[in-house]
Amino acid sequence: MGPRNRRVEPATKSSAFQAQLLDIDAVALALGVTRRHVQRLVAERRIPFLKIGRFVRFDPSELNVWLEERRVDVVEPKGLPVQPPGNVKCDRWPGASPQQ
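-> C-alpha cells emitted (100 positions)
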C-alpha cells in the first residue's frame, strides 16, 4: 500500500490527542466573545493555548480548568436597601409599589 492509500486510525483513549483541539473561532463561540477578544487573550498570554506551526489551538480540558480558576463565588449582599430611597421613582425593586 502506497503512502497515499495509508489509512489513519482514530486516536485511542490513551492517546495524547484524546480531546480534539479547538481553533480561535470555536473558543470565541463557546465563550460568547469576539474572535478579536480571544486573539487579545492569546497575545497577552492570559489563556492557555498551543502553538502548532503558525496555528493557535486550544485544549478543551485546559480551557475548563482555566475557566474554573476564574469562577467568582456568589456572596450574599449585606446592608443593601430592600427598597429605593423615598425620592427615587422605581417599580423594579422587590416590594416597591409603582409610583404615579
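The longest strand covers residues 50-52.
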